[in-house]
Amino acid sequence: xxxxxxDTLTERGFIKQTIYEEDLYKKLGSESVTFYIGFxxxxxxxxxxxxxxxxxxxxxxxxxxxxxxxxxxxxxxIGDPSNRSDMRQMMSGDxxxxxxxxxxxxxxxxxxxxxxxxxVMAHNGNWLRQLNYVDFIRDIGVYFSVNKMLTAxxxxxxxxxxxxxxxxxxxxxxxxxxLVLHQQYGCSLQLGGNDQWSNMLGGVDLIRRxxxxxxxxxxxxxLEKSDGTKMGKTSGxxxxxxxxxxPPYDFYQYFRNVEDAKVAECFRLLTFLPLDExxxxxxxxxxxxxxxxxxxxxEVTLLVHGQAAADEARAQAVAAFGGGGEMPSVxxxxxxxxxxxxxxxxxxxxxxxxxxxxxxxxxxxxxxDRKIADPNDRAxxxxxxxxxxxxxxxxxxxx
Length: 399
Fold this sequence. Notes:
Elements: H1 5-11, E1 15-18, H2 21-30, E2 34-39, H3 48-62, E3 66-71, H4 93-107, E4 120-123, H5 125-128, H6 133-139, H7 146-149, H8 153-161, H9 165-168, H10 170-185, E5 189-193, H11 197-210, E6 216-220, E7 233-234, E8 237-238, H12 248-256, H13 263-270, H14 275-281, H15 289-305, H16 307-323, E9 329-332, H17 340-346, H18 353-361, E10 365-367, E11 370-371, E12 383-388, E13 392-398
Parallel strand pairs: 2-3, 2-5, 3-4, 5-6, 9-13
Antiparallel strand pairs: 1-6, 7-8, 10-11, 10-12, 12-13
Helix pairs in contact: 10-11, 12-15, 12-16, 13-15, 15-16, 17-18
């Protein structure tokens, strides 16, 4: 190993919180560390919120460490209460298992599952679904203080409306995952989003107290807009890594339209481009930042969907924005858009409703041959060509 991966993750802006940092830094710089990240398969695709942890796994593996991608087909039977004001919808075991299989295929674009320090796929249902509950609370529950658990950030939102006993079990169960992975694979490090900090500390504490062995955790920054809200929400819902749920063109356009202030951060967190190249691309804050946005959109789409899809999305974007070629088509859920302004944002032609409104009021938008004067115009055919100015033309299909 050469450069300490902790330095790489720090320089690129990944790390939010750590514990026992000095010891962890030495460990990462002197040996191959087995680490894990958990993914609860509550949908049939990963979404953009999973992207930063997956990229961190890839950086770690490239630095010589061994990743475990833990598919939470056991914990998903309960549902993580972190940052939620209501209880998650219950899903069947079969649905959860199918979702987990989808996750595997998507991760293969980022991680190696063969060769030296090959990534491991594990499923916590293999041990959680077989637990004897009385044995579990005797052997594991004794290490958890309910008073301390109720002060954890992950439970705060739920306490306002009522935290169920079912959800209270989530922290000990996630901590037990870390213990099992420590025992089976020698795993000593858990990584995850910063909203998992309290749960992750539970696992570190469990291993150190029960096994008398070193254990560590690192949380990563969340992908947020300048106003502090999570990035990755579109008018049609989440920004998915599945082409069936978010088409590559829509995915590309999302990052093409990211706010100027977030371009450099997205490059550092979501691509493997060297920092020097990122700094050069983002050196300008005027209209030249658009070239950086186009590169960002291409690089992220390339990683998630592959070169063919990234090339096609870029070609469609060039055509849509006046570069000639085949007119791009965008399919939108009819239920997700009700006005022309909604369509402009959902199709990636405007970054916000405010921008769409100003464009329409300025006379720059037409639906087929009809000039739009009202941003709240709701006369939307099932299929039409949306014109933005004189050069941008996109076929819209409402389904």
